[in-house]
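Appendix C: a fully annotated inverse folding record. The material below is reproduced so that readers can follow the format used throughout the book. The structure is listed first as tokens, followed by the designed sequence.
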């Protein structure tokens, strides 16, 4: 029982956090501005000159600045700056309203009492009611038999009541014998609780979370918020799991200006369970999609992203991602500090992603760059952390670049000649913990001679020269030590031919369902590339640039676009003027290459050429035929699809299609099928249904079709009222199941499980 009382006290303290805004408005009601005069209007006004007392009846209005008091009867003691009002008392300050049957105000020391009172705070849509509300100090209030709610009406859907409520602005509030009511039924009671009441960011406890799952057991999450300064804040959290132990964490955020900001997150867990291969440990506490054990109890995840503006127009970006083991991000994919939450926060704040939660090799980088109209400079330290090799102290040949520096110029004219030029150059130091380490400088200038035939046909031949220098700092274990310095000179030729064709079709001129006009755009393009064959086996090998394959290739592509034009009337003030609305509703592209010589790819380049859609398959002349479609024929339907057809296999190398439908009411459905080289094939679908104005339901399902197993199943129901909502969810993903139950009270926050 004591644990239940403590829990309910914590819950109530979280729910009443937002009273900061309410208290600020109450203070404004009693505020005094001596620089403005009071004005009194009424049907009947009497003035006692000796005592300087005004007595007003019927339609009384006393106002000064933004404050206004109206009542049936008002006695205003001007000498002592006291006022009493009775009958339909209404006092407003800005958009906030105080009402009651009687109010007594001492305007000198800013104290007073409202009987049978109510304060309405419009910004938060809050009502505070009490038999008696007293302002007992400059920023202190007492409410007796009080209630708080964001629901309209005399019988709110929910309210929080307390026998005595004490509030200090920019301080704390206390309440005795508090209860949360839904309708006429009390559901949670606590004899006492304390809560912060501040207008500014406030350090203190946040809304706790509760949950249950197969792998974690019963869960309790308690965050604590710390307002560090005007430019920084932090959240500490304690996540207790009955099966796994106590996971503690920190999230630190700062914003210096629009170009300088950062987020740091760190959490750690002394895990009660390990996957050491004994008994059922791998089945219960490991994951079946990898062959690695996880015997460590010390588990953690440190991640950070930061942007920083530097002098002379330079900018820097920092990305860190260090995790204790290959299973940690699978274990904590969801939740307050899980992978999904982290990924969403990084994408929203920095527009940058992090490596997938299944990837045991994590990228870490520091980048300094400067971008100008004529050139771009980029210097980067890129380190790949192989979690498995580090954990097991295995040989680690993971490749990093410490550093990687590039300088690229924009295409620009060469003096007064018809030629254009650009330059791409770079320096890399390739580092491996074990294995070969080397440095590389690559310089690649290019000359262009563009020419236009009429208004439609364009031709651009270009010639590239490449000089590459290597220096081997350390040879690999299997390498024969030879000359540490190597060099390579290469030249290539490219011819780009393309044209633009357009035709406009008139469909409607009366503002009907069809657009007024549709423009069909056609862009055929032919690119010829030639790179002579050159023996490069003796050069160090780190990436595709070290093995530039010969080319004698022509690539043809055809891009079709359909763009609609609809003229709509737009009202600006009292004037109505037509406006043309353009929308590209279809884009279809096909692309294929032909190698004049039979193509024989280096096996070491397979990982680099797999995604190159212009590269022919080994031993063949034709590359896979690639097609891509983006179709949005209406405001409520879209299709995205792409596919590669292999002439060698007589089958698809990959095919992906996604279909989305939705309506104005809020219903939606999404289906996606993905297939790649018999390596992955999955089906994902989700549906959201607006069952009524208040009830919505959703479901999602993902299946691995190759392994014939379910990846994810989930469904949920939302009920949304005017001042509260209810959310119930169930999710089964990989080796875990989770349940969610959340009640959200508008303006106060949520309480429930996840």
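Designed amino acids, in order:
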């Amino acid at each position: 029982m004591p644990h239940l009382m403590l829990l309910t006290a914590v819950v109530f303290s979280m729910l009443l956090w937002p009273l900061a805004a309410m208290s600020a408005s109450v203070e404004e009601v009693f505020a005094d501005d001596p620089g403005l005069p009071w004005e009194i209007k009424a049907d009947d006004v009497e003035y006692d000159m000796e005592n300087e007392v005004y007595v007003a009846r019927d339609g009384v209005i006393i106002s000064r600045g933004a404050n206004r008091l109206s009542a049936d009867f008002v006695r205003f003691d001007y000498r002592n700056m006291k006022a009493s009002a009775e009958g339909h008392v209404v006092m407003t300050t800005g958009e906030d309203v105080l009402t009651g049957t009687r109010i007594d105000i001492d305007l000198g020391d800013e104290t007073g009492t409202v009987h049978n009172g109510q304060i309405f705070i419009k910004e938060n849509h809050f009502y505070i009611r009490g038999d008696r509300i007293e302002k007992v100090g400059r920023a202190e209030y007492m409410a007796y038999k009080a209630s708080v709610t964001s629901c309209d009406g005399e019988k709110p859907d929910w309210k929080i009541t307390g026998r005595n409520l004490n509030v200090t602005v920019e301080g704390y509030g206390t309440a005795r014998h508090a209860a949360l009511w839904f309708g006429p039924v009390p559901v949670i009671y606590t004899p006492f609780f304390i809560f912060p009441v501040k207008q500014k960011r406030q350090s203190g406890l946040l809304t706790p979370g509760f949950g249950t799952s197969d792998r974690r057991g019963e869960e309790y999450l308690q965050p604590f918020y710390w307002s560090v300064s005007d430019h920084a804040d932090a959240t500490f959290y304690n996540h207790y799991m009955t099966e796994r132990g106590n996971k503690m964490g920190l999230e630190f955020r700062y914003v210096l200006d629009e170009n300088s900001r950062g987020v740091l997150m760190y959490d750690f867990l002394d895990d009660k369970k390990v996957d050491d291969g004994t008994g059922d440990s791998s089945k219960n506490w490991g994951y079946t999609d990898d062959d690695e054990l996880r015997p460590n109890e010390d588990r953690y995840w440190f991640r950070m992203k930061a942007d920083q503006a530097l002098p002379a127009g330079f900018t820097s970006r920092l990305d860190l991602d260090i995790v204790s083991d290959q299973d940690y991000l699978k274990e904590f994919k969801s939740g307050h500090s899980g992978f999904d939450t982290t990924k969403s926060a990084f994408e929203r704040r920095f527009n940058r992603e992090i490596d997938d939660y299944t990837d045991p090799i994590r990228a870490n980088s520091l980048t300094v760059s400067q971008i100008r109209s004529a050139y771009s400079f980029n210097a980067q330290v890129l380190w790949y952390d192989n979690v498995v090799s580090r954990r097991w102290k295995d040989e680690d040949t993971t490749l990093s670049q410490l550093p990687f520096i590039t300088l690229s110029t924009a295409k620009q004219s060469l003096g007064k000649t018809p030629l254009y030029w650009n330059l791409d150059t770079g320096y890399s130091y390739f580092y491996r913990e074990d294995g070969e380490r080397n440095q590389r400088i690559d310089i690649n200038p290019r000359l262009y001679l563009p020419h236009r035939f009429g208004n439609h046909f364009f031709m651009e031949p270009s010639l590239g020269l490449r000089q590459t220098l290597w220096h081997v700092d350390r040879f690999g274990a299997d390498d024969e030590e030879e000359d540490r310095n190597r060099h390579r000179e290469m030249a290539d030729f490219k011819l780009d031919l393309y044209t633009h064709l357009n035709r406009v079709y008139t469909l409607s001129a009366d503002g009907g369902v069809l657009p007024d006009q549709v423009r069909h755009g056609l862009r055929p393009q032919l690119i010829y590339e030639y790179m002579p064959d050159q023996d490069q086996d003796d050069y160090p090998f780190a990436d595709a640039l070290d093995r530039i394959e010969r080319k004698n290739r022509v690539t043809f592509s055809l891009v079709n676009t359909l763009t609609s034009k609809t003229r709509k009337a737009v009202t600006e003030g009292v004037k109505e003027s037509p406006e043309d609305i353009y929308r590209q509703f279809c884009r279809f592209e096909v692309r294929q290459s032909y190698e004049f010589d039979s193509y024989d790819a280096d096996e070491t380049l397979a990982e680099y050429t797999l995604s190159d859609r212009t590269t022919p398959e080994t031993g063949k002349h034709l590359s896979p035929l690639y097609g891509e479609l983006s179709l949005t024929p209406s405001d409520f339907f879209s299709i995205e699809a792409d596919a590669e057809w292999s002439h060698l296999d007589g089958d698809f190398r990959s095919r992906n299609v996604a279909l989305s439908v939705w309506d104005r009411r809020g219903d939606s459905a999404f289906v996606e099928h993905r297939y790649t080289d018999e390596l992955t094939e999955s089906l994902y679908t989700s549906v959201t249904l607006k069952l009524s104005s208040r009830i919505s339901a959703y479901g999602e399902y993902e299946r691995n079709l190759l392994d014939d197993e379910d990846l994810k199943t989930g469904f949920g129901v939302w009920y949304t009222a005017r001042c509260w909502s209810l959310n119930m969810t169930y999710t089964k993903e990989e080796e875990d199941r989770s349940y969610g139950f959340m009640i959200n009270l508008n303006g106060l926050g949520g309480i429930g499980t996840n």
